[in-house]
Structures are given as structure tokens and as C-alpha cells.
Amino acid sequence: MRDMNPETAASLLELVLGGAESQRLETKRVSGKMVAKALETVCAFANTQGGWLVLGVDDAAKAQGQSRLFGIGENPEAVDELLRKLRTHILPTVDGVSLQRVPCVLRDGSDGALVALFVPA
């Protein structure tokens, strides 16, 4: 997985921190429960207009701004499980899904990262 280009990462973080979830942008905090919901989101994006799923971000109803950024280090096993299930649990396979690491400063001020999955229509 490669790092997202800094300009694109800054734009994506601005959208995420603004709480702007939409039909083409969704965020998930990384937990064991997240995997099934994230797979549903990937399927929904693939069957509609496509979109971005950003992992490591709490719900806008629970926190605001940078306080939403928990990062993927909170549960790296869940991220690995999702990546594995993307290849094995969605049929037909969704071609063209790209994953990029988004370096950022987390809610506690430490350096961390989010994962952004782009799902094409």
C-alpha cells in the first residue's frame, strides 16, 4: 500500500474533518465489527457511482474535527481482515479498488495513518 499524494491527502482530510459523508464518501472507525459494514459499503459504491471509504475515522455524530481521527493502528488486524475479504468475499470481484495510506496527526497528537479505499462504479 502506498502513501497518498500529499495534496490529495490534504483535500480528503479536509472533507473528512468537515463531516461531509455522502453517497460517495464514508468513514469507519477500525474495529472487528467494521469489516462487515465496510464490505457492504464497498458493494454499495461499486453498484452505484463509486466512492471513497476512509478507515480510522470516528462517526461525525460522536466527535468533531481532528478528534475523529483514531487511525488504523487502533486495530490493524481488522484492516488486514478487510483487505483479505475484499479479495474473497465479494463476487463478482470489484476490479479497480485502490488502497492508499493517508499519513496524518491523530486525535492524541501522535503521527498515524488512515486508509483510503477508492471503489470505482
What keywords describe this structure?
121 residues, 3 helices, globular, 5 strands, single chain, alpha/beta
Q: How would you concisely characterize the structure shown here?
A:
The chain is α/β, with parallel strands linked by helices and 121 residues long.
Could you describe the 3D structure shown?
This protein has 121 residues and is α/β, with parallel strands linked by helices. The protein contains 3 helices and 5 strands, in the order E-H-E-H-E-H-E-E. It has a 5-stranded mixed sheet with strand order 1-4-5-3-2, with helices on both faces. Helix 2 packs across helix 3. It starts with a strand and ends with a strand. The model has no long low-confidence stretch (mean pLDDT 94).
Give the mean pLDDT: 94
Would you count the extended β strands for me? 5
Helix content: 25-40%
Task: Find the structural class using helix and strand composition.
Answer: alpha/beta
> Largest sheet, described in full?
5 strands, mixed
Cα radius of gyration in angstroms: 13 Å
Strand order of the largest sheet: 1-4-5-3-2
Identify the overall geometry. Answer: globular
H/E element sequence: EHEHEHEE
Q: Uncertain runs with pLDDT below 50, 5 residues or more?
A: none
Strand content: 15-25%
The end-to-end span amounts to 21 Å
Q: Helical stretch count?
A: 3
